[in-house]
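Quick one: co-fold with LLP.
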Amino acid sequence: MNYRNNNLYIENVSAQKIAKKFGTPSYCYSLNKIKSNIRNFKKKFRSIDPLVCFAVKSNSNIQILKEIKKMNIGADVVSKGELLLALKAGINKKKIVFSGVGKNHEEIQLAINKNILLINAESESEIDLIQKIAKIKKKKINIGIRLNPNIDSRSIRKISTGKKDDKFGLTEKNFLKIVKKYKTSKHLNIKCLSVHIGSQITSYKPYEKMLKVIKSVIKKSNHNFDYIDLGGGMGIKYNNDTKIFNYNKYNSIIKKFLIGHKTKIIFEPGRSIVGDAALLLTKVLYIKKANKINFIILDAAMNDFMRPALYGSTHRIVAFKKNKKIIKKRHEFVGPICETTDKFLSIPKFQMLNEKDCLAICDVGAYGMVLSSNYNLRTKPSEILINKSSLKVITKRQKLINII
Ligand code: LLP
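Sure, here it is.
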């Protein structure tokens, strides 16, 4: 995203042109931002040479997955749909890990049939089922076991996954019990210890604690894990208050950890790859001037982009055309949906706006379109991919005829 003569551009294309051509609301991705995020991610961890598996749940557009695949990246999937999509995008099956707390029989069977790298299991019953299916198929399956390290990721509580009261993973005691139980299984290879303590984590410290717990658990298990899957979770800068995640520090603590452990590190980043690579283009329908607030009623709503309504998260909003005139009054950017939480942002001042002006909601590439819905029977937005000066529709705007 950049401004040229006070006009918003995505790569070399003006936001106005995109909105005019494809309408609003539309998700608009910068391919080269995604690519540079991947290059930077790899660069930061070059010294540990990890396997990077993109968390498909953060963005499951097949065209984006195909681009990610070209950069030699694997996939972290959590459902049959995501697994089939990753394979369809051409992602190497030996770079696919299947995570999730409740994989069903069909999903486990598919993962086994497709010979993916790892099924990361999260409960004893699930491991029993994997073993049962593997036995029927006369196969030996590579699994990971997810540890719940009881670490507070100090992120948004609603997206924390690594505390003992979260549903994810196994407690240390159960983890050790399971490793012992299945170590000699004829149908299971315990290849991996996996963790994922949360998302939008901005400090390396929870990861440091997590690695300490992993170290101690490995020692107690007396087992060699070929892989340690550290999950994703690295935070991005949504606004000026967000701390920038210290990759160098994280890399150096992992490097230290690896001195005592000969193992391959896996990462499952989602947000850090696609989060800041998209804008949601929207138009001002109406401006309603109340006593102390200007309500800016947009044509985008919580069904198009859920994060503010769901987590109270803050996403910057910028105008297509910069205007130096600032209105010092509270502005609330809201959608047309019949819910009070259908609100994107509330700020004390904003540049002067008029009805029909266009705006962009920032950093919506991760957990944006994937969380959209048809609430209020609204159609889902289109998705556009920008590569320098070229524009490609990667999802057509949904038509009412398809949902009525
Ligand atoms: N691996 C596992 C097992 C996960 O559960 C997740 C995310 C990831 C990797 C990727 O995490 P990331 O690098 O993207 O932080 N909808 C929420 C986020 C939910 C995250 C769920 N798990 C949001 O919009 O903030």
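If it helps, The mean pLDDT is 96.
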